[in-house]
Amino acid sequence: METLPKNLAELDTCHSLFLREIGEPRQNSLRLLVEEAFVLPHEVTIKFGNSEISGGHPVEPTEDSRLFEITWHNYVAYNVAN
Predict the structure, then answer these.
(1) Residue 70: closest CA among 15, 42, 29, 26
(2) What is the pLDDT of residues 7-37, one digit of tens each?
(3) CB of 67 closer than 8 Å to CB of 35
(4) Given CB 3.0 to 4.6 Å as the disulfide criterion, which of 17, 21, 48, 61 pairs with 33?
(5) pLDDT tens-digit profile of 49-74?
(6) pTM
(7) Diameter of the chain by CA atoms?
(8) E strands along 1-82, which residues?
(9) Do residues 66 and 54 lie in contact, with contact meaning Cβ atoms separated by under 8 Å?
(10) Phi-psi category of residue 49: left, alpha or beta, with phi > 0 → left and psi -120 to 50 → alpha
């Protein structure tokens, strides 16, 4: 069984990830900058139309979050959807 590279194994330990940046540094390459995010302890209430949803916890990066750069140097295909 093949083991994951150290950085990829670290990435796999993150609870949540936010995409901070996406770019193509040169033709047929892709660079992602992803940031670790945590469930914050404070509760929030979200208003949606005439309803409110309470008891939620935001998931956000903090000052303790790790940043990971993932780069594909060769041709890569990807799709971005809203």
Answers:
(1) 29
(2) 778 888 998 999 999 998 888 888 999 999 9
(3) yes
(4) 21
(5) 999 999 999 999 999 999 999 888 88
(6) 0.72
(7) 53
(8) 16-23, 30-39, 44-48, 51-56, 59-60, 67-72
(9) no
(10) left
